Amino acid sequence: MDPIVLSVALRRRLAGPGPIVALTGAGVSAESGLATFRGPGGLWKGHEPQDLATPGAFARDPLLVWRFYAWRRACAAAALPNPAHHALAALSAARPETRIVTQNVDGLHERAGTPDVLRLHGSLWRLRCVEEGEEHEDLRGDLGPLPPRCACGALLRPAVVWFGEALPPGVLAAAQAAVRQAAVLLVAGTSSLVWPAAGLPGIARAAGVHVVEINPEPTPLSDDADEVLRLPAGRALPVLAAAAGAALGASA
After folding, report:
1. What backbone torsions phi and psi does residue 90 show, to the nearest 5 degrees?
2. Cα–Cα distance between 43 and 30 in angstroms, integer?
3. Can you tell me whether residue 43 is helix, strand or coil?
4. Helix axes 8-15, 233-243, angle to 10 degrees
5. In terms of Cα–Cα distance, which of 244, 189, 243 is closest to 221?
6. Residue 148 near residue 156, CB atoms below 8 Å
7. Residue 63, Cβ neighbours under 10 Å: how many?
8. pLDDT tens readout for residues 94-118
9. What angle do CA 11, 16, 17 make, to 5 degrees?
């Protein structure tokens, strides 16, 4: 396997002062075996995932939606963090000002040891009461009879952002602030198609931040990024993290 060569300018920026921010998408977790929404195999039992991830779908058939999310929870529970997750966790440990902003809901960044992940789209492991709006974490592999219900008797739903729903304003504001203050923004494994997450690199560039795309395939961001690494995140991020001073273990 050919070694990864980073530009001198990028090495200097990574080793220099200032926060490093990583924006991660489904491609990062695909390397752990989790299917993406838009890639091959994105169908679930004859349904488009987009049709199962909307408020309307839940209102029509909460049991069907919950079977889909129970399957996603089982897949996420069986997956393991890959070298990309471990590299970002090591970077966060070496440089506490690092921020990880993710579109993923699987919890693999947290399982790799990254603290305080900014989860733009929520988490598979949190449930929300549809009546009271209260959320709680539930890490059980088996939720019992589906669809699950709150102690108040109302239905519980996955605390994820569905198509047609707004992102949590506090999380989005924190992500926007983080990318503005970054020295380097690493954009890894995201299609750059889903807004408002897709707008974060533009906010960073407007603030003078050096934006690096890590993706095997071209995306709408590619022409605007300062540098592009046409590599899987699991190959590129350990090299980038090491250049930024992270001490990588064997898992990374």
Report:
1. -65, -40
2. 15
3. coil
4. 60
5. 189
6. yes
7. 11
8. 999 999 999 999 999 999 999 999 9
9. 150
Residue 100 per-residue DSSP state: E
- Evaluate whether 251 touches 86 at the Cβ level (below 8 Å): yes
Helix ranges restricted to H, the chain: 8-15, 26-30, 49-52, 55-60, 62-78, 83-94, 108-112, 169-181, 200-206, 233-243
- CA–CA separation, 225 and 203 (whole Å): 12
Average pLDDT, the chain: 91
Per the annotation, the verdict on 47 as an active-site residue is no
Rounded Cα–Cα distance for residues 84 and 87 (Å): 5
Amino acid occupying residue 221: L
pTM for the full model?
0.92
State the sign of the Cα–Cα–Cα–Cα dihedral 62, 64, 67, 71. Answer: negative
Residue 48's closest CA among 63, 62, 35? 35
- How many Å is the Cα radius of gyration of the chain? 18
Q: Retrieve residue 73's tokens.
A: 């929870």
Q: How far is residue 250 CA from its own chain's centroid?
A: 23
231, burial (CB in 10 Å: exposed 0-12, middle 13-18, buried 19+): middle
Q: Active-site residue among 86, 109, 121, 210?
A: 121
pLDDT band at 140 (very low <50, low <70, confident <90, very high): confident
DSSP class of residue 61?
-
Whole-Å CA distances, 110 to 42, 128, 252: 24, 20, 15
